Protein 1
Amino acid sequence: MADLLFGLDLPAAVSPGYDPVASALRAEGLGYDFVSTSDHPCGDQPTNETWTMLSWVAARTSRIRIATRVLGVPYRAPAMVAKMAETLDRLSGGRLILGLGGGYSDEEFRAFGLDVPTPREKVDGLSETIQIAHGLWSTPRFSLDGRRYRVREADLEPKPPRPIPVWLGTYGNRALSLTGAAADGWIPSLGSAAPERIPAMRERILAAAAQTGRPADALTCVYNLGIRVDGRASTDPSLLSGSAERLAERLVEFVELGFTGFNFQPAGPDRDEQVDRIAHEVIPLVRQAVAGRPARGGVD
């Protein structure tokens, strides 16, 4: 089995005492593989802009990978995102994971004066964004005349020296098929994709990958979930809580569903303690439990 990936959520919140750089450095020192931040620029709670904050984090860290979880495509011109991604990936030493999504909140689009795309238009835009990024990263004078986005004779230099991984946070049938056909990873959230839904969603991804001639292990599959090491179980379906042993058992069950990575969102006011406990008490148990297992065909 491929090595498991363990990531840590970096809140975009602007709040007293919270420093995203310090949190990322803590994660790096504890051996987490990546940090990630969601993308909700509009709201009544103070937040940092995702790309700017992660650029600041990348400049202060050295090993840990940096993931957008996930950029709302309608907020930014796709060709500019491709340029931004090339620059951040190169300056960070190849540590960027470009997570993309169709855009969750229609209210945010309205508030920022943006058109509100339909669900079909969101998937079309996501598909065209991937095409534009891959085209600009690999070919000179790239053009695309899409339904949502267009580029004409565009050239992006320098080209990335390595393929920048694109992960999608997707749930609907068309978006899942797009993930299998065009993405490098899938990062659904527990609250939006419960474990009992995963097999059918995963099968759709695999079918699309097979139709385009991609191997079954072409995608990284990461479950985004709230977590708390605690003696009490939670009734929140988007949160795992319990003893370290019970949490490890649940995560191994998710590995058996085809996940080979997790992005943790520690819950509760004692965030730093939780980050430490997950690293020291939970992750080693998961690694030990899955060590030596044969690789499972499918999203990996």
Note: Residues 119-138 form the longest helix (20 residues).
Protein 2
Amino acid sequence: MRSRIEKTGLIGLGLIAGVLISLQFSAIADKDSAEPLPIEELRAFSEVFGRIKSDYVEPVTDKKLITEAITGMLTGLDPHSAYLDADAFKELQIGTQGEFGGLGIEVGMEDGLVKVISPIEDSPAYHAGMKSGDLIIKLDDVMVKSLTLGDAVKRMRGKPGSKIILTVIRKDAPKPLTFTLTRAIIKVQSVKSKLVEPGYAFIRITQFQEHTGENLATALNNLFKQNQGTMKGLVLDLRNDPGGLLNSSVAASAAFLPKDALVVYTEGRNSDAKMRLTAVPNDYLRNNEKDYLKNLPAAVKTVPMIVLVNGGSASASEIVAGALQDHKRAVIMGTQTFGKGSVQSVLPLGNNTAIKLTTARYFTPGGRSIQAKGIVPDIVVEDPATVEDQTFRMREADLERHLSNSQEVVDVKVGVTVKPAVPATPAKSPTKREEGDATKPKMLEFGSKEDYQLHQAINLLKGINILQGK
């Protein structure tokens, strides 16, 4: 019996050692000095592998065991590293193009449960009233504790028009809530724009996708044409923007910054992870695109500007806010951002699979690390319609195994706090709904007449114009 276990374990040891050697993990870990393979740890792995193969209640394939081992290695590092099987890799590629099927929620994993990072605007989850920080404990009749994040995402995806029941734990709710959601094709409109009033424009970026840069350029050109070049102020709204593609965030920053201005730089262990991205076409264009920022009106670089952020502004949106803040190009207004200051590289492995691996931290032009800290607004303005959500909002620092901030002391300015003109309305007690026990709060529409933070931004822009006139 023991010899059979040892034989099976040695096969497992050979498999995992072969994987390590073929991927040259030793060389990747330290290119200057190759480290020997961890023989004792691999021996322990082989013993566990052998025990599972010989004694587990049901037969388990080698492929499943190796896949689960890889998944465990990555998820044990930080909340953003992950193994992407063929389906997950395909979904990642589709998601950056701005159209995919599902419920419309950005999710992560915490304590074996699916945690909502942010509902995507105009999605089924958004309209149903799901909130950042919600913990999904059950999908239909299946407990989430028994699933990997990939498995849970697969169950939430499905044929448009089909329904799924989500059971959710919410910090401020006395009992679990249920949401009956109808799956839909999620078409994320990356850039939305309008004139709030003559001379004052509003542009919202909901997510940084492949075409965000050119969509932003189109919106800016149209807005300036409508005002015949007499734009007095611009509000860039990055609230609840979970991020996206790095080059698109560089493009958005470059639209408002002088040529060659530093937008962001990254620091990692390997030379490939060290980059300096500036406001030049080579750093934001892809696939031989034409420079869509080339013909923007000159006034785009100088028009008074406010950037709105909140706890749902993460990653790429924090890069833009940090760059415009450090270059003193815009006033940052709102509440402290999420604090995701790490870079994930998608590394294909073959068979249409990949790993998403955290390879670097990013820094603002002034050298600030945003990781687990976020962007502190110049002017802190809480919206009475969302102040309760901000209290319970999850941030990077709340995630288990989050990457630490590399700077022991972070010098951040203290923002000026503006209290809401009207008190926040108290939370209503849960009422029975046709779809379940969850209340359906009125969702704030960013850019609407009820948008308190937007109106504060417009008031500030008018004040700046008055001062400039004097």
Note: The two ends are 91 Å apart (CA to CA).
